Amino acid sequence: MEKVLTTVICTALVCVQLIGCSQQTAPADTQPKATTEKAGATETTEITGDTEETGEAEGEQSRVYKIGINSYAENFESSQRYLSSFRAAAEKAGNVELVYADCNADPQKLAPNYDAFILQNVDAIIDASWMGEVGPIAVEKCKGAGIPLVVCDSPFDEEYSYLIGTDQYQAGVIAGKYLADYVKENWDGSIDYLVLEYFQSGGPQVKDRMQGCLDGLKENGIPVEEDQVFWFDNEAQTQKTNQITRDFLTSHPDATKIIFGTNNDPCAIGVVSAVEASNRVDNCISYSYGGEDSALDLLKKDDNCYIGSVSFQQLQYG
Asked: Where is this chain compositionally biased, Low complexity type (predicted)?
């Protein structure tokens, strides 16, 4: 079976619209002045409840929306793709200023990042850190400041924030179906082990994509017992994924049909290098999620165990 890049289409972000919907017009005798600075010039626009349609359009166009972007890590491939998409969308809108903060893969940095956004008076925050475990902290800070919150792929709560992105579980099911076809064609319809390495701090949604793969395998005729499935927290780090994979291969020398799944594409590099270093290419297959450049590079090579990625189309998020 040829290697494949499976696509999951994602919804575009609508932060400016969300901000607009949350605003209300003040009474006529207490109209506020909206002041923005742009290109060195200060413009003051009076907001009135009875402005004609053309006046409203001019007022909206003159306002600059400041949006905070909370990122996972600036050197992380998915984070770079998100930021590229957000920048392109902001440039196209023409009235959006982006303020960036980076968690550097550390959940403890989320809270101070949000404090900085609030001090800078952002109009909304887009969170692309996937840090679901500390998400409630972000929600409470946004609630207290009255700032809309949009999160990408990993939900922070069920009431306040807006969730944009991929159906994580269905992404996993798609992977499972493809893997089932491979197993039927190449491994006589059976496996020895399914090893799932994922970012535990990303919350239940990240685990859902891994669970979806397991369910997808079963639904498509591949028997998988509980003692054949291993779950590991790779902290979304390539090097840790590499070590987990090496250790597993060392402790299971007789296994010849092992599926390794990682929650992102860069971690798949860790799997592939570990499998090659252990001389177990013929015993393993690897898949991941993201559809990023690292996945494409692996797919171009015929001499490794990597067979596919489910694309989240992150360049369309902006």
From this structure: 37-48
Q: With the C-alpha atoms ordered 7, 8, 9, 11, is the resulting torsion angle positive or negative?
A: negative
Left if phi > 0, otherwise alpha if psi is -120 to 50, otherwise beta: which for 39?
A: left
Mean pLDDT, the chain, rounded, equals 82
Give me the residue label for tokens 């002045």: 33
Q: Which residue has the tokens 């940095």?
A: 109
Contact between 120 and 66 (Cβ < 8 Å) = yes
Looking at residue 262, what DSSP letter applies? Answer: E
Rounded to 5°, the CA angle 316-143-104 comes to 50
Nearest Cα neighbor of 123 from 69, 62, 199 is: 69
Identify the residue whose tokens are 């959006």: 96
59's tokens: 């007022």
168-316 fold: Rossmann fold (3.40.50)
Q: Flag residues of the chain having pLDDT under 50.
A: 5-54
Task: Give the pair of three-digit tokens for residue 166.
Answer: 């991929």
Give the Cα separation of 290 and 274 in Å (integer). Answer: 20
Residue 149 host element (H or E) = strand 149-152
Within the chain, all domains assigned CATH 3.40.50.2300 are found at 65-164, 168-316
Q: What is the predicted pLDDT for the residue at 180?
A: 97
Q: Is there a contact between 172 and 213 (Cβ–Cβ < 8 Å)?
A: yes
Domain covering 65-164, topology: Rossmann fold (3.40.50)
Q: Above pLDDT 90, what percent of the chain?
A: 57
Q: Report the alpha-carbon angle 302-306-307, nearest 5.
A: 85
10 Å CB burial of residue 44 (0-12, 13-18, 19+) is exposed
d(Cα 241, Cα 293) in Å, to the nearest integer? 18
